[in-house]
Amino acid sequence: MNVEKIEAYRKEFHKRYPAAKLQQDFKLKYIYNSALLDGGSLSAADVEMVMNGAEALADKSMTEMLEVKGHLSAYDYLFLQAETRRLSADLALNFHQLLYQEADLTQAGCFRLYEAMAPGSLHTSCTPQRIGIELMRLTEWVNDERGKYHPVELAAQLHKRFAFIRPFNIGNGKVARLLMNLVLLQDGYPPAIIAPSEKKEYYALLEEARRDDKPFVNFIARQVLNAEQAAVV
């Protein structure tokens, strides 16, 4: 992880992107890319139409459109929470509730009730009975470890550990990225936006992180640096 380079670009990034401008300018890119990582099919133009108030899209899935609306709410909540410095297990539930409040009320804000395995993984996630406990431990760990890790590494560690808990039936990736980016925003870094072209590498490194998480941390650091560089060029 190139800490010196990240910090050097961060200073210039701050000059050009106050919080309100950052929230607005990154919104379309963030939501479009995050949805595609989880199998979405809407184009950037489709997402922008939903952002501008479209209630339906011709020949497009209503469920996907409603998920984008939920994602918009979760994204705005992300920036609201960035003003705080602490995390809680309730944040994950709140993000999930916002993501699926219109698309799937039966799932919104609800932990899974059955054993689960992430797609492409050979490892079973924690049992449903332990989800609440593990999330509480994870958020307490983040709160306790601030200052001991570089913020970018801490954010990547949060993403990894949340993904391995896999608390929900759907939307675990979206919530993991929201929590990761919350930690980044709280410490003054831009959101790490992962392009669909990097999807295969992203998930492969996340699975590899069960044995060695350094490549995954470096991958997330690269996304942060890319965001900084693109913004100041």
Describe the structure.
- This protein has 233 residues and is mainly alpha-helical.
- The chain has one domain: Fic-like fold.
- Helices cover 63% and strands 0% of the residues.
- It is built from 10 helices and no strands.
- α3 crosses α4, α5 packs across α8 and α7 packs antiparallel against α8.
- The protein is globular and about 45 Å long.
- The mean pLDDT is 91.
Keywords:
mainly alpha, globular, Fic-like fold, 10 helices, 233 residues
Helix content: 55-70%
Unreliable sequence segments: none
Number of domains: 1
Order of helices and strands: HHHHHHHHHH
Which CATH class applies here? Mainly Alpha
**Which structural class matches the secondary elements?**
mainly alpha
What spatial form do the alpha-carbon principal axes imply?
globular
Q: Provide the gyration radius in Å.
A: 17 Å
Mean pLDDT: 91
Count of DSSP strands:
0
Number of helices: 10
CATH topology: Fic-like fold
The CA-CA distance between the termini, in Å, is 21 Å
Largest sheet composition: none
CATH homology superfamily = Fido-like domain
The percentage of residues in β strands lies in under 5%
In the CATH classification, which architecture applies? Answer: Orthogonal Bundle
